[in-house]
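Journal club prep, notes for RB
We'll compare a predicted complex against what the paper describes. Inputs for the lysine case:
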Amino acid sequence: MDHFQYRDGELFAEELPVEQLAARFGTPLYLYSRATLERHFQAFDEAFGDHPHQVCYAVKANSNLAVLNVLARCGAGFDIVSGGELERVLRAGGDPDKIVFSGVGKTAEEMAAALKAGIHCFNVESAAELELLNLVAGELDLQAPIAIRVNPDVDAQTHPYISTGLKDNKFGVDIDKAPALYQRAHELPHIRILGIDCHIGSQLTKLSPFEDALERVLKLLDQLQAHGIEIQHLDLGGGLGVTYDQETPPAPADYVQALLKHIPGDLPVHIEPGRAIAANAGIFVTQVLFLKPTEHKNFAIVDGAMNDLIRPSLYSAWQNIVPVKPHDADCRTWDIVGPVCETGDFLGKERALSLDTGDLLAVRSAGAYGFAMASNYNSRNRPAEIMVDGDQAFVVRQRETVDDQLKLESLLP
Ligand SMILES: Cc1ncc(COP(=O)(O)O)c(C=O)c1O
Ligand SMILES: N[C@@H](CCCC[NH3+])C(=O)O
């Protein structure tokens, strides 16, 4: 069920009219639906049935504390990629024992913080990282639990910027070199081998790349077991895509089933979905400032911009843009552009819409990689974030002020 639906000719977020929320909190604005976040998490979690598993939500998709807290209350684990994300998860009430730490550039400080917090597993992405982790754990007189993130050289068939499992990508360790690195890990005194990790990319809309990667991971599992290296879980990463336009990604249950049918026995499985949990749990609301029809093109200049939502500019990503209160003014084809001084500042191009100045528009599927990638470019205050829960709305991040932006800067003496 979609929690952003039209009722009596206007868009609602759960039980609240979006127009009312925009009037109350201003625009541009991110709105999240608690019920949708919970439903999406449960769709993954329940698909495992009795199979031992942990769904580790990829924090990078949307790291708002309230979003993390909603998911922590559902029993989620978390996939983090920085000390900042670690701190967010802990402050949101996440269980450290359900945290996995991915990323190619963990610093010694980040490793130490994660070790002290008692996280479940480090997803190690290089030989050099393994050596440093061993040293850092040694200094703390601890053992670091690890999986090695392998790069299976599988084409995820997604946008090149968000494909991670090809030999040319910086992520993970060449799967052919992994046995030697596991051997090294086995010898290191402050490393404890737990699992194998693999994540091949984001916004995948087919099952076959996941299955190809898993096949290679299972071969590695056999090789390791033959060498007496025990593996206690497989982490198969995230990456399941969502429908922005015409895409038809597999449902979470079908994706989980496709993985589980290859898993030997009851070997525990971790997954790290981000987008599939958060994207369609959020919308981005913006108001038309000016209409600027020209002979060649019609521009609708809105108060939201690439600094608030960069996916269209960065990846030419298409996200649906819908009127909050549809009306019958004459319909034209508009480029929906923001106030930022860049030609690439657009939220959507060539959209057929009936628009008046002052209208509210909602960019759909904005809950993942939306606010999380927002910046202060052009010294714009980042938008407020609101969590809607039934007929209640909570400010989960206040709209920034210029003072917020400036507080870390200073003049020369
Ligand atoms: C290691 C890792 N895990 C999980 C994810 C989450 O991916 P997605 O949001 O596509 O599910 C990413 C991002 O692609 C990632 O790099
Ligand atoms: N930021 C990307 C996804 C990146 C995935 C990170 N591993 C997007 O918006 O599609």
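Talking point for the session: The domain at 4-32+279-406 is CATH 2.40.37.10 (Lyase, Ornithine Decarboxylase; Chain A, domain 1).
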